[in-house]
Amino acid sequence: MMQISDSYNQKNSLFTAMSRFIGAVNNMDQTVMVPSLLRDVPLEDGEDLKAPVSVPESAPESAPSTNGYFQPDGDMYSSYVLLKSIRNDMEWGVLGDERPKAEAERGEAGDDDLEKQFHFHLNGLQAVLSKLTLKANTLTNRYKEEIGCRN
User: How many whole angstroms separate alpha carbon 135 and alpha carbon 79?
Assistant: First the structure.
């Protein structure tokens, strides 16, 4: 019984979500031999990926918007570059603290319920990683269709 529970928890872990995303982007990167072919090709099959990620009602008003990740008029090339950039940020980190000073000060004052904040952001990160993984897989499959490769 314990092993079943452990494997279920591992399947839903942040590490697993990150590994799936990085694997999908690596696969995309190895498949897309000529990225310039992706220019001006719409991501038609990924219409659902263009919608912003829904933010739970319990989300603080200062929760960052994800609209910048999924541009409605974006093409496959811009998605390709974005996915590779996110993968690099995950693997190598982001330089400096990019949060505005006021936001950082609010964060220090709101440390009362760190566990609640952690779970909120963990759930959000897992949801975003899942959508990004789906986007990388969709882009890979669309590229294969564009170049006539069905494998």
Answer: 8
Facing residues of 75 across strands?
42
Residue-wise pLDDT for 60-81, tens only, equals 444 333 344 556 567 899 999 9
Query: Is the Cβ–Cβ distance between 116 and 54 less than 8 Å?
Result: no
In Å, what is the CA distance from 14 to each residue of 19, 66, 75, 125, 127? 9, 19, 28, 8, 10
Do the Cβ atoms of 99 and 25 come closer than 8 Å? no
Contact predicate 150/39, CB 8 Å: no
Arithmetic mean of pLDDT over the chain: 76
Separation between Cα atoms, residue 129 and residue 122, nearest integer Å = 10
Unique residue bearing structure tokens 């038609």 = 44
pLDDT number for residue 121: 94
Token pair of 108, please? Answer: 């220090």
Residue 1: what pLDDT?
45
As a whole number of angstroms, the distance between CA 39 and CA 13 comes to: 35
